[in-house]
Design brief:
Layout (H helix, E strand, L loop, with lengths): L1 H5 L3 H8 L5 E4 L3 H4 L4 H7 L9 E5 L2 E2 L6 E2 L2 E2 L1 H9 L4 E4 L7 H13 L4 E9 L14 E16 L16 H10 L4 E6 L2 E5 L4 E5 L5 E9 L3 H6 L4
Antiparallel strand pairs: 1-10, 2-3, 2-6, 4-5, 6-7, 7-12, 8-9, 8-10, 8-11, 8-12
């Protein structure tokens, strides 16, 4: 499943390029992940969505939740209006909680590459919509472009390791200063079917093109060391 989904051989990734090298490839599993448009995301929102799982973003700023939720439920008409009229982007995290197909994919990847765990995040952005400023993540990421295109700028890591998911925010001023002083090492435009592996701590920025974009960000997270040591002890 790993090699079909990401188009990357495990023998190529491990041990020599894991956490060290950007890799681009093409997915062979397009029928499995589909073309996840805004309508697809809206179809998942009929049931309650947990507070931190759905984010509506415009020019790097989060929209107020009361603009698109009421009583813990999403107001799909408001979300559609935010997309079509305001140019907002949608970020749905932990997609496997809301779509059984992605739950199956995550479970298969977890079993195949244990002790790593995998989570799916879906981004949909209309033309000229920007999600986040330059940043880095505490997990490895596989970007799968589903529809449209997205331009990526990538800089080398400036820290060696990050243990907590929240830690990258501590480095935001350092990241901004680094990007202001250095041109990106890579500029890559992903088209539908393209895949890009980003090692954790790699600085990156996604920029809009002249068409809409839908992409998956698949997190690959190592289990904490203490779970290796104590996980089976009763």
């Amino acid at each position: 499943m790993f090699e079909e989904l990401f188009g990357i051989s495990k023998q190529v990734l491990f041990p020599h390029r894991w956490e060290t090298s950007l890799i681009t490839s093409k997915t062979a599993a397009k029928p499995l992940v589909g073309n996840q448009s805004a309508d697809y995301i809206l179809s998942l929102l009929s049931n309650p969505v947990e507070h931190e799982d759905l984010l509506i973003i415009k020019d790097g700023t989060y929209c107020r939740r009361d603009a698109y939720t009421s009583g813990g439920r999403c107001i799909k008409e408001n979300i559609r209006e935010l997309i079509t009229q305001e140019g907002c982007a949608i970020y749905l995290r932990w997609l496997e909680k809301y779509d059984s197909n992605f739950n199956t994919l995550a479970n298969r990847l977890n079993a195949e590459l244990s002790p790593f765990t995998f989570s799916f995040c879906l981004f949909y952005a209309p033309t000229a919509s920007t999600l986040f400023d330059e940043h880095f993540d505490a997990h490895d990421a596989f970007i799968i472009q589903l529809e449209g295109s997205k331009k990526w700028q990538v800089w080398p890591a400036i820290v060696a390791d990050v243990e907590a998911v929240s830690s990258p925010h501590f480095y935001t001023p350092m990241v901004r200063a680094h990007v202001a002083e250095h041109a990106p090492s890579y500029e890559i435009t992903l088209q539908a079917g393209d895949v890009m592996y980003l090692p954790r701590c790699t600085i990156h920025r996604a920029l809009p093109t002249d068409e809409h974009s839908s992409h998956l960000n698949v997190w690959m997270t190592p289990r904490p060391l203490h779970k290796f040591i104590w996980g089976d002890v009763k």
